[in-house]
Amino acid sequence: MFTRKLMFMLKKLLIVLILLPALPAWIAVQDYLVSRRGIEAVRPADKAVVLATKAYEQGRPNPCLAARVEAGAALYRAGKVKKLVMSGGINRDHRYGSRTMQALAERMGVPASAIEQEDQSSDTFENIVFSARFIENSPRVVLVSAGYHLMRSRWMAEKQWPGKDIQVFAAPFCSEPNGGYAFSLVREVAAVVKNGAKGRF
Asked: Which CDD domains does this UniProt record tie to the protein (predicted)?
């Protein structure tokens, strides 16, 4: 009995060790595919949920957060969504992501009346969980984030938002200032493994 259990665990470990090196490449391919999808391919929806990242990097506004907001604003300006839900509580930089995102969106021409703030979340899973109340009466939703982040985000949203028609829309490419794109992919692999182990998708 013990030997069979040990063999099962060793097989699982072997599968993980084989697949782990391939995960960054797979995520990069998913990023490429979703990022090529233009705004014209998005079906009209009630709301877009825009996921936050750090508001500031090294004391300067984070261009990657601005890219995500720009993608949401583009959906609104194109008439693809009626409202934007800015999802982000106090982040690692001790700032409310949702507030920074609303200010950016208003500068991009989105009226305050078309923006709602989810300001309690501290990570992607909480973004999804705490945004649920904002989309209760929205059958079709667009999830907006960086391309490499959308696969995991959608998996979690599909579990937490049952019955919703969930589309994704990628922000313009932006490499996080600290560590670059390769670091973002490695971090995303770790997040996929961690959230998968927690049964979040």
From this structure: YdcF-like
